[in-house]
Amino acid sequence: MSIKDIIREQTPWSWEIPRSYNDAMAVPALVFADAAMLRDVMSDRSLEQLVNVASLPGILRAAMVMPDVHEGYGFPIGGIAATEYPHGAISPGGIGYDINCGVRLLTTEFLYTDLSDKFRKLAEELNRQIPSGVGRGGSLRLSQSELDRVLNEGAPYLIAQGYGSPRDAHFTESGGCLDWADANQVSEDARRRGFNQVGTMGSGNHFVEIDRVDSIFDADTADRFGLRMNQVVVLIHTGSRGLGHQVATDYIRLLMSAMPKYDIHLPDRELACVPLSSPEGSDYFKAMAAAANFAWANRQLITHRVRTAFANVLGTKRSGQIEVLYDVAHNIAKIEEHEVDGRRKQVIVHRKGATRAFGPGNPEVVEEYRNEGQPVLIPGSMGTASFVLAGTEKSMQYSFGSTCHGAGRRMSRTRARKEVRASELIQKLASKGIHVQAGSKRGLTEEAPLAYKDVNAVVDIVHDAGIARKIARLRPVAVVKG
Fold it and tell me: Tell me, what's the pLDDT at 398?
């Protein structure tokens, strides 16, 4: 029997693969999608991977994917799994190689018309200020002791060095620092890859983008978030760079070799896992947290350089206040409290290409936004749109406080390179008023809008399902990519 034969509709926006599909599943698998999107998902191995996730030791309620789902390493991208704390599984495949890849949204005092003749210069200056590309480092080179501070303290350490204000960390998930991080669990190989990469963008789908607010769906919440029509904002999307990738590589290898010790047998070795309470699980969790802190420090230094770029182009007196609206991770595992089987309990939530979306009243949402719910930042492709959402109580009930993280790929990078010419793409974007700066033509074509799903459709599904609600839409006017 195939997944297509057994998957059943729960609502117009959710589908279930029951436990009876195979003997290894400990819980059902849940897919957030509409019928059209579900048909597209069937074209790769995403749902087979999701079924495998449902076999993780200690998994609770269901293995889940969001509508931006596509095939990944071990877990499908867009995947969510919560396991029993403290003896349930911790799986690097449920976080991904780019630990704490995430998004930060900055607000400015400007309207689109204020800067309509400055966007090209701003894009060029952002490109100068923020190094991008595979393996490329930046001007900030950290000593061993400084790198330890970044790994253990995250964004607040850089802020203390003059690269921002305490307000920046306040409006960052977990204050920009996971306090169980331990730099001693990060290998020398990872350190060598990361010592000069704080403040750099990297490649792939990472970017720094100037947008304008082109639609507001909830005026009261938008106002609370500091958003208004035609406002200029800046979206930053990047993660832990080579350091995070090496942490994942190191520990996937370690956990694969450790699984027999704990009598763990899985249908896919890419799901390599051990109990969080084990020495290997604890060490990975501490190293993952250190890499997450590195990523928050990275976005913090990029924020400082965005402010510098605006000041250089507009003049220090005219550049105005550029503030952090919010910063949220979408590749991470955290210990959180959720209701399971009618009682509150601590669980280990894996989010791989999924965004935390805590609802109103949650004490982990900063006081300024607590009545509205946590801001959720959903980047699209460089030629379409991005969204600001808010978390909901329903997400706490149904998806462990989680929602989608972006548009989601629908085409491989190899196929995108074959179908898109860089020069034509640049011209097409320019015709829409979007100025592009790119580190390479290859990187640009791989991230062409046609390689991604329709972000509007993805966001509509999570909005209609009630696990996040639409607040505002952003349209790009200048994009800087690796």
Answer: 96
pLDDT of amino acid 200: 95
Q: Which of 330, 405, 435, 463 is catalytic?
A: 405
DSSP string of 452-469, one letter each residue: B--HHHHHHHHHHHTSSE
CA distance 465 to 399: 11
Give CA 146 to chain center in angstroms: 26
Q: In this structure, is the dihedral angle defined by the CA atoms of residues 89, 63, 375 and 408, taken in order, positive or negative?
A: positive
Model confidence at 148: pLDDT above 70: yes
- Catalytic, 435? Answer no
Expressed in angstroms, the distance from the first to the final Cα of the chain is 44
Judge whether residue 137 has pLDDT over 70: no
3-481: what fold? tRNA-splicing ligase RtcB (3.90.1860)
**Residue 316 pLDDT level (bands cut at 50, 70, 90):** confident
Q: Is the pLDDT of residue 441 over 80?
A: no
